[in-house]
Amino acid sequence: MHDEKNIKFKVPNDVARIMKQWGGHSVKLAAARGALPMSGPNLVTVLFIFYHGEDKELQEEALNTLKELSPSILKAVCAQADVHPEILDLLARLHYKNMAVMEPLLTNRMVGLKTLMFVAEHASGDVLDLVASNDTAIRQAKALRLLIINNPHADKVLKIRLGWKEETKVQPEAKEKRPEKVPEQTEEQQSEFEGEIEDFDAETLSKYQQLVDMAVAEKIKMALTGDKEWRNLLIRESNKLVSGAVLKNPRITEPEVLAVAKNRASNEELIRIIAFNREWVKNYEMKKALIEHPRTPLQQAVKFMTFLSQKDLKNLAKSRNIPQVIVNNARRMLMTRKH
Fold it and tell me: 229-271, pLDDT tens digit by residue?
């Protein structure tokens, strides 16, 4: 996977001071294996430097450590406002199937188009949805939109939203040479919406084609009154007024709402509407889904935790895909229940 091109990278002062203290190769090797005490961001920076260095052994050890770092460390790095775009790019190529890591990475203002294009071509499920929701990048780069449309994991709902038509086969523009793919590490996380619409009859396709030319006001009206096919399509709109209107549709069912709550790509407005709806949150599975969702208001998530079973609390206490605050609270609750 190693990229041989030269990368301009200014080593942060605190990292430079740490590395100056190291003596021989054995100490550097320990650092490459993540065995020396340092903060998560500093560790990732050191591993990035080793990965792009000349020492092949350090390169290999650094890459292995980057693959195995915990999601909590990776999330902290990806959420940094000043993280180098090339660090984000490397992490994206290693962890593009992990939504917990990719969410802060893809929403970081420092993420580059090169990274977005790689993810658009290789990702699936919630991660692919998150790339497709970056309207600014898609407007600026036609190739990004085409990569998403041509991604075999993109369903028709997503493709139609980006302007694809059934009879049109688009070809991506020439892409820059990229490092070879990273070996797969985890099971693909499929979106809750994937597979819900498999048979596309003439009437259904007509709705998708209508959507392309609909104004926002028309979409909102259809979201408020439309049938399940319209709701399934419009809930994925990037415009929050449109997607939020779907949840106000009097015909929406609880299983549909639960699917939204379980979908980690659902925007904060959708999650907020669900979390503050007294009827919907009477459902145990709804509470559980909201607790695990990264965009649920923290106060509400903690409140819902008081209803969880011992088994589900134990699962939360061991989870790596939820905020650390929730994990810590689950552990405290378990200790309290023991006494």
Answer: 889 888 888 788 999 999 999 999 999 999 999 988 888 899 9
**DSSP codes, 211-240:** HHH--HHHHHHHHHH--HHHHHHHTT-SSH
Same domain, 32 and 123: yes
Q: What is the dihedral of CA 66, 46, 104, 119, to 10 degrees?
A: -60
Residues 197 and 200: their CA atoms lie apart, in Å, by 7
Alpha helices in 123-235 (DSSP H): 125-132, 135-140, 142-150, 156-161, 202-213, 216-225, 228-234
Q: Does 325 reside within a domain? A: yes
Give the residue with greater pLDDT, 17 vs 210. Answer: 210
Q: What is the mean pLDDT of residues 53-57?
A: 84
Domain end call among 101, 133, 161: 161
Report the number of distinct structural domains present in the chain.
2
Its domain, for residue 319, covers 202-338
**Proportion of the chain in helix, strand, coil states, percent, rounded to 5:** 60, 0, 40
Instruction: Tell whether the torsion through CA atoms of 334, 335, 338 and 339 is positive or negative.
Output: negative
**Same-domain status, 107 and 228:** no
For the segment 95-125, what is each residue's pLDDT rounded down to a tens digit?
Answer: 999 998 999 999 888 888 889 999 999 998 8
Of 111, 133, 161, the position where a domain reaches its end is 161
Residues 219 and 152 in one domain: no
- What does R_g of the chain's alpha carbons equal in angstroms? 22
Nearest-angstrom CA–CA distance, 263 and 236: 11
Residue 170 lies in a domain: no
Q: What type of residue is 46?
A: V
Does a structural domain hold residue 311?
yes
Cα–Cα distances in angstroms (integers) from residue 184 to residues 103, 187, 307, 325, in the given order: 19, 8, 37, 30
As a dihedral over the C-alpha atoms of residue 22, residue 23, residue 29, residue 33, rounded to 10 degrees, the angle is: -30
pTM: 0.55
Domain assignment present for residue 35? The answer is yes
Sole residue written with tokens 């962890």 = 95
Q: Does 153 share its domain with 213?
A: no
